[in-house]
Design brief:
The chain is mainly beta. The protein is 5% helix and 37% strand. It has a six-stranded mixed β-barrel with strand order 3-7-4-6-5-8. Strands 1-2 form a two-stranded antiparallel ribbon. It starts with a strand and ends with a strand.
């Protein structure tokens, strides 16, 4: 555990694996947090991180990164660790590939 500014404990967890992004047919559906999913938001689904957690997702290939908020559960594909909104995947330059290798760093709790 690291200690951040003002003596607040900062728990930084890293994960490596594959990221994908939501299909368009999920637009407007309720997420696990109760909010409606939007491809234009910077949000993501993760199986275990608490809802509301902010994470930095970095594309291993080109080191581009984006900060997203976990608002849903998933992905439902065994070899993936996170599902991103289209906007987040665009910022990672991963739209054309569809699935990219990423590093996830936990920045905050809910």
């Amino acid at each position: 555990m690291l200690v951040g500014m003002a003596g607040v404990a900062v728990c930084q967890i890293e994960e490596y694996g594959k990221a994908s992004y939501y299909a368009d047919n999920f637009e407007g559906r309720k997420t696990a947090s109760g909010e409606l999913f939007s491809q234009d938001s910077l949000t993501a689904a993760h199986l275990t991180l608490p809802i509301g957690t902010k994470v930095k997702v970095t594309n291993i290939k080109d080191n581009r990164s984006v900060i997203v908020r976990i608002n849903d559960r998933g992905p439902n594909v065994p070899d993936r660790i996170i599902d991103l909104s289209r906007k987040a995947m665009q910022q990672l330059n991963g739209i054309y590939e569809g699935v990219i290798e990423v590093r996830i760093e936990r920045l905050t709790g809910p």
